[in-house]
Every structure is written in C-alpha cells, then in structure tokens.
Design goal:
Strand content: 25-35%
Largest sheet: 7 strands, antiparallel
Structural class: alpha+beta
Strand order of the largest sheet: 1-2-3-5-6-7-4
C-alpha cells in the first residue's frame, strides 16, 4: 500500500527549480521506502539530462528508446537503504512515512533527489500497457 503525497516537491540543487510531480505516493515495501511519482515530460528531460535519481545511462536496462518525450513519465525510486533504515525508526508505517516526506524544508535529506535511486521509468501507452526501462538499482 502507498499513501499519496499532495503538493510534494523534490529538491534538486540550490538555485534550481524543484521537481514538482504531477502526482506522488510513498510506502514501505519490506524495509525499503518506495516513492512513485509521475512527472511531466519537461521534468523528465531535466532528470534525464542531469542523471538525477541516480539515472546514469550505464545503470539503465533496455527499453529507453520507446519513451515518448511529449508524455508524462512514471518513476519508481527507493530511498538509499541506510536512510531507509534510519527513517523506519521514526516512520514505521506508510502514513508516518508520508508525513515525514511532507516536511517543507529544502535541505531535508529525504526531499533531495540524490537520496533516491530510480528503479523503473515507465510510460502508459494505452490502458494497461506500459513501456520503459529498469535500472540496476532495481536489484
């Protein structure tokens, strides 16, 4: 299960505009904090160009060429395991995790893009049909 994150934004670098997902949700999957967000094609282009969320080209596995750069993109990411372990002690369930990520502080470590590791990048082509790619972070 996951909990929606209304008005969530992900901070990039000082002076740069944050990533503002069209929608976002977070939840625990075992001991992993998992963030799923849909971003505009413009924000995906920024993420891709700067290898945000640790989306280095060398870490990608297949399918990338099929993304339509004019449509929104869904990204699933995991918080670094050390950070997740620390966060689990203060946010043991999905609701508490969502509340912890709603802190509106630009320097909050779990709101920074470099704390998250993208595992999948997909796009819906038609109802029930998604294309995209996985990363080496998907384990």
């Amino acid at each position: 299960m996951s909990v929606a994150l209304p008005a969530f934004s992900m901070f990039v670098a000082t002076g740069d505009a944050p990533i503002r997902p069209l929608d976002a949700a977070v939840g625990w999957d075992g001991g992993a904090a998992v963030l799923t967000m849909t971003v505009s094609s413009e924000d995906y282009d920024r993420i891709d160009a700067a290898a945000m969320l640790h989306l280095d080209p060398i870490m990608r596995r297949g399918g990338e060429a099929r993304l339509d750069r004019s449509q929104p993109v869904r990204i699933t990411a995991r918080l670094h395991e050390n950070d997740a372990r620390d966060l689990l002690t203060v946010a043991p369930d999905d609701d508490a995790l969502a509340a912890a990520l709603q802190v509106d502080v630009e320097t909050h470590p779990f709101r920074r893009q470099d704390a998250w590791y993208a595992t999948t990048v997909t796009q819906e082509r038609m109802p029930g049909v998604r294309v995209g790619y996985r990363t080496e972070w998907d384990g």
